[in-house]
Amino acid sequence: MSQPSTPTKQKIWIFCRVRDCYVLERAVRTESNELDPNGMDSDEEVESSRLETKAEVMERLGGESRAPPPAPMKKKAASRLSLREREEQKRRSAEKKKEEEEPQGALVYEMGGLLSPLTDEHYDAQDPRSAMEQLFTDVEPIGKGNFGEVYRGKYKGDKGKWYAIKKSLTTDSGKAVKEVKGFQQIPPNKYITEYVSGWLDRGLVYIQTELCEMSLLAYCRNGLEEDEIWKVLVQVVLGLRHLHTSGFCHNDLKPDNILVKDTVIKIADFGLVSRVNEEWCAGDEGDSRYLAPEVFSQKVFTTAGDVFAAGMSLLEITTGLHMPPQGDVRNILIGGRTPSRFFHGRSIDLREIIESMIRRNPEARPSAWELLEHPIVKSYKDSKDEVSGEHPWTPATSTLSENYRLRRKKSRMPPPPSADETPKRRVKVRQEEDKENEDRLFMARVRAKNGLFAEEEHCESEEDKYFIADIV
């Protein structure tokens, strides 16, 4: 997997004596008008009346503040079918219904999109109950979205550990399958929700992950002190840096898709994950309240778009604003003209770094690497792994890395033999594979004993790291 090049380290954040805060040097040169202190709060009284906090909206409406309704979907025109086509359609529907009613074994998603039968001591393929009902106890719903429902349950094995299980709503589960593949390809990280397993059961996709306590939106419901907001910012950016270093874009970052577990902030929901600079397809866009303006104009997912979504999320939890989905009110935020009353009690540095992330011009936004070079952000990083420019790898003994190693190992398993392959040929191939593995194991032990794997450059691939971790 080719990784994007990390920006060259340089003094990108400078102290502006006029504003008494740190500003992005590149933005000072290219968009100095945005940083003009004299024009920053122009017409503030007019714009302030057009923006409201969530509390103000609730007070005005006398009820609960709700997110704006989604855009109406265009109805498909009913196609005229011939009598033969209608009969064929009925026959297929009957067969599909019969297959769904009959007990079928669940299939686990392996690396590369392959499916294999689910095997577990607590699962019986002939049992009419779903795999989730068989494998977990005390199952209860904890959330619901446009594409799936989320449950929590206690696994019957593993000493009764609790997990989150996401279940797709319909058999048209393209987004759910994409989320499984995205989870599998992203290397494990402290600030990414841990993926455990994914399986297909009766046409529905299930995704098992670690169980977090709440979403960032719920975590910030009663407001946060500025010190806590800086900590949230640092961890969100660390998660983004890991994604971008691995060559992926999230494309749907928002407070609902950022979870909290033991005060650690974790990015979740990878249903719209894509490769960096992958072309945009209609219907794949995320929440319009957090979506970067260039996504619609250029139709390309970029890392700058993720930075914009993170900035809008931080703006929401910092100011408590009722986020507008579109229109002139949204342009006030993107133009850096958010009235000062919404930042009451917040520092100029916090306001500047958030507004730098949501600039209209993506070239003027700081990257995740550049955000981590901000002097105040640096002071909040308390781990030696977080200081490195590369994404941190957890120790080979951790659960995260073990799961990742097993998924990679399964992806290297040969496909089942074809029908025309003779038994003699299969035995010969197996003997050759065993000899190759024995030679590789012997050489790995010799090299490990001599300390040749002390430095990363002696490992031929990421797979070798985990292979050596098993034998050392």
Automatic annotation (TrEMBL):
Looking up InterPro entries in the UniProt record yields: CC_SR_Kinase, Kinase-like_dom_sf, Prot_kinase_dom, Protein_kinase_ATP_BS, Ser/Thr_kinase_AS
GO biological process terms, semicolon-separated? meiotic cell cycle; negative regulation of G2/MI transition of meiotic cell cycle
Q: Report residues binding ATP.
A: K167
Residue ranges constituting the Protein kinase domain according to the UniProt record: 136-377
The Basic and acidic residues compositionally biased stretches are 47-63, 82-100, 421-439
* One family name in Pfam for this protein: Pkinase
Catalytic activity line of the entry: L-threonyl-[protein] + ATP = O-phospho-L-threonyl-[protein] + ADP + H(+); L-seryl-[protein] + ATP = O-phospho-L-seryl-[protein] + ADP + H(+)
| Keywords of this entry | ATP-binding, Cell cycle, Kinase, Magnesium, Metal-binding, Nucleotide-binding, Serine/threonine-protein kinase, Transferase
Protein name, per record? non-specific serine/threonine protein kinase
**Organism, as annotated:** Caenorhabditis remanei
